[in-house]
């Protein structure tokens, strides 16, 4: 009798709905959608999670109550769309609603102000929005505030590793961050953990390319620019008014090697091999190992940020890194002599899609709580 009453009261309860619109159906986007039903079921007693849009750069499915197990076929036969249609559709959806950006596009990220004007919360795996020039980035934050909308971007650095969330918790509990250092690129981590001087470094680069660890032109990884962007994301998490150009960058390439075609570069790969062998031999002679590290140091009145090849001693946390892993070493008032270390896979479709669902779960909890007020 009692349980019948409980069931009846649950059925009569009107659950809040959160509409989810997914931009990007590639590697990570497809996995995010594969996991969507599990999230729907997990929240079923508290919230109706409605898949209300799926689109990529070509086609769009813009309708509520989409079937998350059957979006591929429907999208493939879907219509081409115009940006104006997308914006009108987003504006027409009832709040709360969230746009999940799983594209790599800066052009797309530059439209965040329009998505916010349409009433959308934002979840980004795409780093481009959080690393826009300071003025544009601040304009996005300013647009979110009056509408009380959230922007979650935990997967932009370290994929599923909750580094931004940990930084926020430390700050909210009164700690002061002094230094963040680490290895933020799984590709460069693999290359430098694997390189042992037994064969030319360029052969390790070829192997990483064959394993699918690198960008199509591996110099995009070796340039260090992606790591520079990730360090900017963390600096902004700490509310530091930094720009990309404020972060000193030393590529994992000899001077000038980033210019010209891949073929030109490959013809001169002996320069890269000799350059890195010399660095490696010097490190070994000092009992150290090579790592491609990012470092943000917050001293009173002075912030220093750099991304570079470093040689670290065996007791340094960065020395104990597994190939492909990322590591974040956080030093603060409470973690001084013994820093807080987060490590694990910093890329991959499963962990990144999982991290996006973690961001979605945070937003869903906010919606549930505000519906109970
Ligand atoms: N892969 C990882 O391990 C990882 C880890 C952390 C973060 N991320 C980030 O997650 C994002 C997605 O990565 P991914 O590996 O899934 O990339 P991907 O496989 O290349 O997929 C990208 C998707 O974005 C769509 N797209 C591109 N430009 C668009 C636009 N202007 N409007 C709408 N859709 C657009 C593409 O559309 P088409 O299908 O039409 O080309 C494609 O569906 C990137 O920002 C990446 O940096 C990835």
Automatic annotation (TrEMBL):
Give the signal peptide as a residue range, or say none if absent.
Answer: none
Tell me which UniProt keywords the record has, alphabetically.
Amino-acid biosynthesis, Methionine biosynthesis, NADP, Oxidoreductase, Threonine biosynthesis
EC main group: oxidoreductase
Q: What is the lineage of its organism?
A: Bacteria, Pseudomonadati, Pseudomonadota, Gammaproteobacteria, Alteromonadales
Q: Which domain of life is it from?
A: Bacteria
* Names of required cofactors: a metal cation
This chain belongs to the protein called homoserine dehydrogenase
SUPFAM superfamilies, per this entry? Glyceraldehyde-3-phosphate dehydrogenase-like, C-terminal domain, NAD(P)-binding Rossmann-fold domains
Record's keyword annotation contains Protease:
no
Catalysed reaction equations from the record: L-homoserine + NADP(+) = L-aspartate 4-semialdehyde + NADPH + H(+); L-homoserine + NAD(+) = L-aspartate 4-semialdehyde + NADH + H(+)
Pathway info? Amino-acid biosynthesis; L-methionine biosynthesis via de novo pathway; L-homoserine from L-aspartate: step 3/3; Amino-acid biosynthesis; L-threonine biosynthesis; L-threonine from L-aspartate: step 3/5
Q: What is its EC number?
A: 1.1.1.3
Record-annotated Homoserine dehydrogenase catalytic domain positions: 162-360
Q: Which residues form the Aspartate/homoserine dehydrogenase NAD-binding domain?
A: 24-148
Q: Tell me if Signal is a UniProt keyword of this record.
A: no
Q: What's this protein's family per the entry?
A: Belongs to the homoserine dehydrogenase family.
């Amino acid at each position: 009798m009692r349980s019948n009453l409980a069931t009846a009261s649950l059925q009569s309860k009107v659950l809040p709905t959160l509409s989810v619109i997914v931009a990007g159906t590639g590697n990570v986007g497809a996995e995010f959608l594969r996991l969507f039903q599990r999230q729907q079921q997990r929240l079923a007693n508290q919230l109706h999670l409605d898949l209300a849009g799926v689109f990529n750069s070509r086609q769009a499915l813009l309708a509520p109550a989409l079937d998350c197990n059957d979006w591929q076929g429907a999208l493939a036969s879907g219509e081409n769309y115009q940006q104006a249609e997308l914006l009108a559709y987003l504006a027409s959806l009832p709040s709360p609603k969230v746009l999940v950006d799983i594209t790599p596009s800066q052009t797309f990220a530059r439209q965040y102000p329009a998505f916010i004007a349409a009433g959308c919360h934002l979840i980004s795996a795409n780093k481009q929005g959080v690393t826009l020039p300071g003025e544009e980035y601040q304009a996005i934050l300013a647009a979110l505030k009056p509408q009380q909308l959230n922007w979650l971007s935990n997967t932009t650095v370290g994929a599923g590793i909750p580094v931004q969330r940990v930084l926020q918790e430390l700050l909210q509990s009164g700690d002061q961050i002094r230094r963040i250092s680490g290895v933020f690129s799984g590709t460069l981590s693999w290359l430098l953990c694997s390189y042992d001087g037994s064969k030319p470094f360029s052969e390790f680069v070829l192997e990483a390319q064959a394993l699918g660890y690198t960008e199509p032109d591996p110099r995009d990884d070796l340039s260090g620019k992606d790591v520079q962007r990730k360090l900017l994301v963390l600096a902004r998490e700490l509310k530091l008014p930094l720009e990309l150009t404020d972060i000193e960058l030393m590529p994992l390439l000899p001077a000038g090697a980033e210019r010209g075609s891949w073929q030109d570069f490959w013809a001169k790969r002996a320069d890269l091999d000799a350059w890195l062998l010399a660095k490696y031999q010097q490190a070994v002679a000092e009992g150290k190992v090579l790592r491609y590290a990012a470092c943000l140091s917050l001293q009173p009145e002075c912030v220093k940020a750099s991304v570079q090849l470093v040689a670290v001693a065996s007791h340094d946390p960065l020395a104990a890194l597994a190939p492909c892993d990322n590591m974040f070493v956080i030093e603060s008032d409470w973690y001084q002599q013994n820093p807080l270390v987060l490590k694990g896979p910093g890329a991959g479709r499963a962990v990144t899609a999982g991290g996006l669902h973690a961001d979605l779960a945070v937003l869903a909890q906010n919606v549930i709580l505000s519906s109970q007020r």
